[in-house]
Amino acid sequence: MLLGDDGGLRPTIFAEMSALATSSGAINLGQGFPDEDGPTEVLEAARQAITDGFNQYPPGTGMPVLRNAISAHQQRFYGLTVDPDREVLVTAGATEALAATILALTEKGDEVVTLEPFYDAYGAIVGLAGATHVTVPMRAPLFQPDPDELRAAITDRTRLILINNPHNPTGSVLPRETLQLIVELATKHDALIVTDEVYEHLVFDAPHIPVATLPGARARTITISSAGKTFNTTGWKIGWLTAPHAIVSSIVAVKQFLTFVNGAPFQPAIAVGLALPDSFFTGIAATLGRKHDLLSSGLTDAGFAVTRAQGGYFVVADAAPLGYDDAEEFCRALPGLAGVVGVPISAFVRQGNRAEYRSLVRFAYCKRESVLEEAVARLGALAR
Ligand SMILES: *Cc1c(COP(=O)(O)O)cnc(C)c1O
């Protein structure tokens, strides 16, 4: 089965690039997973939960201890009051939250508006739902959507506006004015907003602004997040969404037949993580920001034109100043040229729209500092 406008289910460039990294011994900055464990309290809590017998199916909406912790987290960081019993749903990662939401809330032919480039699952899930995918470009070098293009894309046919902030793959953060415009357009056209905020704690400049905190947004917003990126537990697949009760109920109706439930012993462990002191959360942002700066300055020194990331795991580098116009070709050659792997941004763009992203490469900096230092040293070969 092929999905999306150009077959979202074909073997991805990510698999190809990771295989290339393995076979060539190159440093893999293609895939966005951390190479270090997260907080020991969280890991220890999972071990303890297994010992304590939390090994059977948890409740369908998630264990109360985690739903309470998610609710307390929304209050503590954003001043949002969320009913832990009616407005929270624990999911198998943000991915299942996205899938269940889109499948539950769209009918065949409904339009789903996303920014472009977009996280690759979006296109595939919209395709699975039989909905129509409409995109608004985020162009280099700033990777911000144009307000008029947002106004043109969001119409009465729009059922969902799916945004991702901070943004993967570009590292951009949407300013408050853009979020406000999105809420305004959603209200005008009676669309729902789905906001993927998995990088909410990994912002480098200003505090994160959840869409749900904006005036008028709450009643039409489904907020999705995940423990993976915050606690370096991407393999645990504990995610969640918060939304008004009626919306949660329709999403649960789909979710029960996707995974039903997952990760029983990890749920209380993530509850421990969400209650860690503020210093943990400011610490992970500061550490990741330093890693960003290290890789970005190395890429700049190597001759790329780099757009500074404002959050998340990834930075975009333009290979055109180095004389490479085709990032796909360049990424295939890069392990041989410099012993490093990146991913072409075209992998996050639909076929017909790839031309203007042609020379752009995404690199992950969620790696140990020593790994990034070695990558930077190797990339120096491009400048010679
Ligand atoms: C990593 C990522 C996800 C997936 O999160 P999981 O919790 O692993 O399912 C979703 N959206 C974005 C933008 C991501 O980067």
Automatic annotation (TrEMBL):
GO cellular component annotations of the record: cytoplasm
Cofactor: pyridoxal 5'-phosphate
One GO MF term attached to the UniProt entry: pyridoxal phosphate binding
Listed Pfam families: Aminotran_1_2
SUPFAM superfamilies the UniProt entry points to: PLP-dependent transferases (SSF53383)
The entry's keywords: Aminotransferase, Pyridoxal phosphate, Transferase
Gene3D superfamilies in the cross-refs: Aspartate Aminotransferase, domain 1, Type I PLP-dependent aspartate aminotransferase-like (Major domain)
Boundaries of every Aminotransferase class I/classII large domain copy: 27-379
Family statement drawn from the similarity comment of this UniProt entry: Belongs to the class-I pyridoxal-phosphate-dependent aminotransferase family.
NCBIfam families per record: PRK07777.1
Descriptive protein name: Aminotransferase
Lineage: Bacteria, Bacillati, Actinomycetota, Actinomycetes, Micrococcales
